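Lay summary. Proteins are chains of building blocks that fold into shapes, and those shapes determine what they do. In this project we predict the shape from the chain. Here is one chain we studied, written as its sequence of building blocks.
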Amino acid sequence: MSNDASNESEKILESLFEPVNAEILVELKDGPKLLSVLTKKIAISKEKLDEKLSYLIEKGFVSKNEKNDDVSYSLDTEKLSKFLENDDNFKNIDDGLAKLDSFLN
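And here is the predicted shape, written in a compact code that computers can read:
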């Protein structure tokens, strides 16, 4: 894997396992959620939530949908699974899970 691709994979993993993002992704794993629900549940401003997810939206892991006055977010679980199962990323998962575990405990 080239250095650029390796660096990008590392950046994606860091973003996925960043504590606030991980909490948001857990909320999205069962389906789309309205922005208002996420901000109440996670106690984060709308602007900060959008900022936190911007890289994952750019990379296609999270989608932002605006309909009328409602904004919702959804997680592409298939893309996430494929990314995490990739052999080159697999060695980084243990580190990511350890970081997530230390955050949650």
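What the prediction tells us: The beta strands are 33-34, 62-67, 70-75.
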